[in-house]
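Progress note, project year one: complex with adenosine-5'-triphosphate.
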Amino acid sequence: MSKSKDGQETPLMKQYNAIKAKHPGALLLFRVGDFYETFGEDAVIASKVLDIVLTKRANGAASHIELAGFPHHSLDNYLPKLVRAGNRVAICDQLEDPKSVKGIVKRGVTELVTPGLSYNDQVLDTRRNNYLASIYFGKEKHGIAFLDVSTGEFMCAEGNPSYLEKLLQSFAPSEVIYSKAAKKTAAEWFKNDFITFHCEDWVYQYDFTYEKLKSHFGTANLKGFGIEELTSATIAAGAILYYLEETEHREVQHISSISRIAEEKYVWLDKFTIRNLELVFPQHEGGVPLIQILDQTVTPMGSRMMKKWMVLPLKEKQPIEERLNVVDFFYQNSSLIEEIIGNLKHIGDLERLISKVVVGRANPREINQIKKALKASLPIKELLKNQQNPTLKRLSDQIHPCEFLMEKIDRELEEDAPMLVHQGGVIKDGVDAELDEYRGLANKGKDFLVQIQQREIQNTGISSLKISFNKVFGYYLEVTHAHKDKVPQEWIRKQTLVNAERYITPELKDYEEKILNAEERMIALEQKYFQELVLEAGQFVTQIQQNARILGTLDTLISFAKVALANGYTRPKISDTETLEIKDGRHPVIEKQLPVGENYVPNDIYLDHDSQQILIITGPNMAGKSALLRQTALIVLMAQMGSFVPASFARIGIIDKVFTRVGASDNLSKGESTFMVEMTETASILNNLSDRSLVLMDEIGRGTSTYDGISIAWSIVEFLHNHQNFKAKTLFATHYHELNQLATDFPRIKNFNVAVKEVGNKVIFLRKLKEGGSEHSFGIHVAQMAGMPNPVVFRASEILGHLEKDKAVKEKKETFKSVPKNNFQLSLFEMDPKLSEAKKLLDEVDINAISPIEALLKLHEIKKKME
Ligand SMILES: Nc1ncnc2c1ncn2[C@@H]1O[C@H](COP(=O)(O)OP(=O)(O)OP(=O)(O)O)[C@@H](O)[C@H]1O
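Model obtained:
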């Protein structure tokens, strides 16, 4: 097939190569007859990813080409697998009916599916947005844009690298595009975190992209979207529109607007904070992110909205209060929750369905689902209208019932219409007289066939005679060989099977023509009416998109109320003061994971600008310091998302930035955090502080030697306290009890410790935060708890004792020479009394004299001693 006998490239292969050359970097699915074929490298990848057979075809004299294909009807099954494996897939279809063409069929790429651009239900996760991001690396500012083509959501922003990195982390796009010239920067930025693609440099030009956006939205400028002045964001966003065209996504009217991600509206979370607080994604496999606790939504829109709210907590009091008022309302009127949820459950993925309508991919079932969703939104609209809550009333007003569309679908589309229009049974009776007539004819014709069958059974006496249909002969009469002799002469034999014969008659053919004609016309008319319905639905894009947004918002707020009721959360008080006051705060995730019978120990936190700006929190490993730090940030963020919080009381003086830094060694397992990184990131915190920042520092300085670490930690705390402009509220967890000294020197630094109790040589964790510093670290006790061999534990205690003594010595510039050398082998027995007793018993044994039974008894004795 690849080359003709004379070694020339076949016309088909020529066509393939030409199309392939137009889409470099894409895996080409090339439609040949009923198959999608892949060749060469593509075939190798496809066979591996899809687990399909790889064959080789001769390709001229000495070479061959790999080939792998699958039936065209399996596309929906195989395409998502290829895309999820990170491939860009170009689908090349036959653009003409092969029957009506002589020679080679015209072919062309009808869609280029990339990880970031897909409508396919199998590729998409209903509970997550599927964003394509575009980044413009500018001289002054970088620009970024996000598009979810499956919902039509389009956003952009610009700023410094750390802002963009934070947005990338928050929205976790499935694919990132950028300009070729920025290849090197992009490689440094993205490492292997994202699937990327680069466009030609001329795409990332201001004039071109500005025009692209204007012509897409049909506006004279971009002022209405609030992005006129954002040059870098415009470039990034316009490049996305270009990329859509490049990938044959031309029906994109559902992208009806672009919004600016308003930095000033949302809390600044640095990328480390998003990861460390595990808001949406777990940090490690098996971890539980906060969203898993808070997301009880029942619609895909709600779930996607919740994720957005989590990474973009608000920092303006009024919109936070508005959300809290609604949550409070449902909290107080919990009987409404189930009623509304009952209706929300019928909404489905309205947002993605309407996108499919626009791009011409909606099938009859999906149009029916739009009707169901619109129907279910009516009782919700009614319910909300009657409540004593202004926000709910407003939401009710904004739900558009789209009655005209709903009624039209109801009137015209069969309730149980099939997925595919050409299967028939899509349009209801009574919509069109001609359609009804054809349908009647087709059905009547079929009734008549039954009558013929009955008549012929009687006439011939062949009781098993039946009339069937196949594509080759049309309708035929089938008679088993046993009855062959009874067949009338005028029947025309068409086919002989192993145990039956098939016949046709002129009468049968006559009806066949009538039936087939009628069916063909019936389907053509059904298709026409269905297309009209889809077009009509397309007229309601804006209203339906708005409905989807409102129902998603409602779903999210109800989810907050549900979770608050189930977990005993309270409404936070949002204040303009600088005070952060939490009573009986809990960690929303850890409290759900404790073993049965164990209760989470609640703790209070108080921070302000006057007397308690910085808390130095000491305590042994495992005491609960990290949990306390994280729960404080989570409570603040939950409150500013509009959720109730796990505490008996919370007054939240609005926070505008949350910074988190965890000491290097906590991250060593990921192999990415060195002391240098720790210090760079800490520096970036200190350079970006604000008066309303919340800073969480967990074991900063532990990535270096003790004295280095203490000194660095010490000076960071001093810096935070003495900053000229900002009093950033800070929780500083540390092993270095030496830092307790700071509280005596600075008025707004206070010492706290997470309490533990020592009983004998054991440590009991009380998990309670108490005022005051702690005397020493408890690392050695924790080592013991972790099952460290006793000799190691004893030896560590001994060394610690000497080192502590040494500190005094050190001040006189001496070294740690007082720590005595240890002979580990010898001391093993000496240091553990049980072991030394066992040794004594063993020494007493004379191996040459002991009988097997005595040996067993001795062993038993030794074992007992060791228990
Ligand atoms: N208030 C609490 N109530 C009940 N259990 C808690 C509480 N705080 C923490 N824990 C439990 O203790 C474990 C250890 O807590 P955490 O990691 O916060 O300790 P840490 O003091 O930061 O230790 P390290 O210094 O080793 O990081 C947590 O995983 C959690 O299961």
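Residues 590, 600-601, 619, 621-627, 767 surround adenosine-5'-triphosphate (CB under 6 Å).
Residues 832-866 form one domain.
No further modelling is planned for this target in the current period.
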